[in-house]
């Protein structure tokens, strides 16, 4: 069984996979509970779904990419079983799991898997176990580091983490402007871009990409 908040079809709105049509599985458990979480409704879902039902729905949607997001998917005890069953489906070419990286697990099947690791910056008001995130990036061959930034303190956190992760060969780092209810998102994006462009030394040391959450800019799920 998997704790489930919802399933839906959309395009991936963020990170290096932006624009990909996908079937989304949003799990329903998270103990991190960040202050600016945009999916707090997924922290504690009472709904438990058999893995077989999710596989049938993925088959029905007939899309090559399945994205498992949250909540926090790595808190699901049977997430490895779900990934294993999804990878057996011939029509599914890629399984993307989005995690904050607070929990290290080494039991996820790596065939067809891409792990997107998004450590939480200071503006989320949570003490974050950075080493777990770095270990995930090191262990999983196909991985991506994506860090939200809103403030100068967030940018310092992002820079330190990206430079620590730089020796790892498996990712291109992404900085993602964070949405906040206090400001229009497009204005936040402009401020974060300006913040990063001011640090030429950092840009030249890394293969950084600044990618906003496109789905929020255009108003889709």
Description:
The chain has a single domain, classed as Aldolase class I (TIM Barrel), CATH 3.20.20. It has a 9-stranded mixed beta sheet with strand order 3-1-2-4-5-6-7-8-9. With 221 residues, it is α/β, with parallel strands linked by helices. Helix 1 packs parallel to helix 2. The radius of gyration is 17 Å and the shape is globular. The protein is built from 7 helices and 9 strands. The two termini are 25 Å apart. Helix content is 31%, strand content 22%.
Ordered list of secondary-structure elements with their pairings:
Elements: E1 2-11, E2 21-27, E3 48-49, H1 51-61, E4 65-69, H2 79-87, E5 94-99, E6 113-117, H3 130-139, E7 143-149, H4 152-165, E8 174-177, H5 185-197, H6 200-205, E9 209-210, H7 214-218
Parallel strand pairs: 2-4, 4-5, 5-6, 6-7, 7-8, 8-9
Antiparallel strand pairs: 1-2, 1-3
Helix pairs in contact: 1-2
Brief summary:
31% of the residues lie in helices and 22% in strands.
Please outline the major beta sheet. 9 strands, mixed
What is the count of helical runs?
Answer: 7
Instruction: Please tell me the overall pLDDT.
Output: 94
| Overall geometric form | globular
The unreliable regions are none
CATH class, named Alpha Beta
Strand content: 15-25%
- CATH architecture, by name, is Alpha-Beta Barrel
Structural class: alpha/beta
CA radius of gyration: 17 Å
CATH topology: TIM Barrel
């Amino acid at each position: 069984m998997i704790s489930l908040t919802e399933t839906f079809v959309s395009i991936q709105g963020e990170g290096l996979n932006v624009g990909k049509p996908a079937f989304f599985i949003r799990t329903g458990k998270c103990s991190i509970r960040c202050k600016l979480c945009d999916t707090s409704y997924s922290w504690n879902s009472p709904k438990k779904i058999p893995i077989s039902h999710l596989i049938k729905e993925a088959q029905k949607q007939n899309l090559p990419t399945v994205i498992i997001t949250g909540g926090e998917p790595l808190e699901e005890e049977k997430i490895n079983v779900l990934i294993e069953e999804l990878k057996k489906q011939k029509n599914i070419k890629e399984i993307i799991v989005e995690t904050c990286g607070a929990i290290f697990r080494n039991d996820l099947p790596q065939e067809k898997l891409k792990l997107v690791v998004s450590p939480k910056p200071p503006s989320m008001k949570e003490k974050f176990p950075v080493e777990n995130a770095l270990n995930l990036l090191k262990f999983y061959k196909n991985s991506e580091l994506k860090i939200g930034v809103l403030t100068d303190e967030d940018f310092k956190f992002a820079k330190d983490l990206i430079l620590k992760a730089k020796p790892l060969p498996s990712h291109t780092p992404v900085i993602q402007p964070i949405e906040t209810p206090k400001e229009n998102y497009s204005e936040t994006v402009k401020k974060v871009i300006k913040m990063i462009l001011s640090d030429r030394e950092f840009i030249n040391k890394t293969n950084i990409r600044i990618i906003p959450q496109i789905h929020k800019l255009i108003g889709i799920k």
